[in-house]
Recover the amino acids of this structure.
């Protein structure tokens, strides 16, 4: 997966990871996917996004989770 589509710019959305410098955060895309919104609906609602952007958001999230070890069983 190509995560080069994910940008971090302090001047855009407070430095949150965004899709290609657009004002759409990785968190927004992942949140929609987690709610069960279809890829087609996301792409339709955000016409400037491309299918590869959704793949990049997922790849970026997976990479970030692997970056540090966390005990997910702790309450």
């Amino acid at each position: 997966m190509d995560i080069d589509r994910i940008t971090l710019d302090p001047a855009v959305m407070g430095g949150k990871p965004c899709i290609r410098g657009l004002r759409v955060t990785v968190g927004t895309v992942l949140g929609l996917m987690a709610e069960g919104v279809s890829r087609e609906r996301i792409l339709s609602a955000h016409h400037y996004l491309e299918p590869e952007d959704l793949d990049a958001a997922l790849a970026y999230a997976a990479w970030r989770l692997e970056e540090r070890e966390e005990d997910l069983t702790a309450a």
Summary: Helices lie at 26-34, 39-45, 51-67. The longest strand covers residues 6-7. The beta strands are 6-7, 18-19. Residues 51-67 form the longest helix (17 residues).
